[in-house]
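This entry is set out below.
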Amino acid sequence: MARKETAADAANPGRLKQIALTYKMTRRADKKIGLVLAAVGIVTFGVFLAIGFLIGHPIYLGILGFLLAFLATAIVFGRRAERAAFGQMEGQPGAAAAVLDNIGRGWTTTPAVAMNRNQDVVHRAVGKAGIVLVAEGNPNRVKNLLAAEKKRMNRIVADVPVHDLIVGTGEGQVELKKLRTTMLKLPRVLTGPQVTATNDRLRALGDLMSNMPLPKGPMPKGMKLPKGGPRGR
């Protein structure tokens, strides 16, 4: 029993430190976060307390209002922290892969299944919606990457729908903060066993990193990759 209490006590400072770090990170991008959270908490508590006085139960409604104010503040803080995090990640290489890694259960993601020398990249996610190819980089260049990868998917798993998305803020693109929501809204057309079978077939292909031949020992100075990029044998 004492050990459990000690572990819990040790975990609490860690959680508080994480919350504090998240708040500091959010405040860099959202200067009004403190005022917003204070306003949400005070208004929520004040409304319930006022209702309590009107109906003659200020203590009960005050306690309920305090709990709901804490909950509302936590929800608002979580959303604004998420928005701030996406804002800082926007335009950074690998940002889409980070979102895909946290998309949730039922999805299997493989980063960098296709890439060019300009570091435009295509990631792959497989779930009940089928195969989703997510590209990040220059919109004009990634279209060719997407087309080639989509053609490859249709040739290998022709019975599975293939969707393609380009992360960005331009017309026809998906904002980074909306990527997860957009993918979760795709219609589910595959069963669990079909998803597993699709993953097995794609896993047999490997990915860009596993297929890339790496030289033994350090790379000679001044050595450049071939213009066409590395290809697996």
In short: The helical segments are 2-29, 33-55, 58-89, 95-101, 139-156, 179-184, 192-203, 208-211. The chain is about 55% helix and 10% strand. The first strand starts at residue 108 and ends at 115. Residues 73 and 176 are 25 Å apart (CA to CA).
